[in-house]
């Protein structure tokens, strides 16, 4: 094999490995989001059930009827049997007083952003002027006597 083919093979193998890594990361992120959405759906469903059952003073058999009606409206729907609806009510009742919001990691990131001042380098990068912004193609070299106060 020539050196060119060996390098191409290594590059190809690296390319495939990068694709695999992107696919795995994306699937993991998708599964996390799906789980979050499912939990929120169960929590909201539990809330709706608790509020409606209490307000209307419905009896114990109403969850069976709701489960059957949902199944008729959405054939093949899974996870909304009367037993699961009862579990959703309990889930909401148990966790209704806990604030549901961003994860602890996301909250820490936000706090760090607000507490840690922007570095001088980051400020300079934001204010750096490109050649195209100089009028009449003037040189953008600073004069020798220029000193920055820090």
| Rg over C-alpha atoms, rounded to the nearest angstrom | 30 Å
Order of helices and strands: HHHHH
Number of helices: 5
Count of beta strands: 0
Gross morphology: flat
Structural class: mainly alpha
Biggest sheet statistics: none
β-strand amount: under 5%
Q: Uncertain runs with pLDDT below 50, 5 residues or more?
A: 130-135, 137-148
Spatial gap, N to C terminus: 58 Å
Q: Determine the mean pLDDT.
A: 78
Helix share bin: 55-70%
Describe this entry's structure for a reader:
This protein is mainly α and 150 residues long. Helix content is 67%, strand content 0%. It is built from 5 helices and no strands. The protein has helices spanning 3-56, 62-73, 82-95, 104-115, 120-127. Helix 1 (3-56) crosses helix 3 (82-95) and helix 2 packs across helix 3 (82-95). The longest helix is centred in the first third of the chain and has 54 residues, at 3-56. It is flat. The two termini are 58 Å apart. 4% of the residues are buried.
């Amino acid at each position: 094999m020539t050196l060119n083919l060996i390098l191409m093979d290594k590059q190809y193998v690296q390319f495939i490995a990068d694709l695999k890594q992107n696919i795995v990361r994306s699937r993991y992120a998708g599964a996390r989001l799906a789980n979050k959405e499912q939990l929120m759906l169960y929590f909201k469903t539990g809330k709706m059930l608790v509020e409606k059952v209490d307000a209307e003073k419905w009896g114990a058999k109403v969850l069976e009827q709701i489960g059957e009606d949902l199944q008729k409206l959405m054939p093949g729907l899974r996870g909304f049997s009367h037993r699961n609806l009862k579990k959703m009510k309990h889930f909401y009742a148990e966790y209704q007083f806990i604030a549901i919001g961003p994860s602890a990691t996301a909250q820490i990131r936000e706090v760090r952003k607000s507490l840690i001042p922007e570095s001088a380098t980051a400020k300079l990068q934001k204010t750096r002027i490109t050649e195209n912004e100089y009028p009449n193609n003037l040189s953008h070299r600073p004069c020798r006597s220029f000193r920055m106060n820090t």
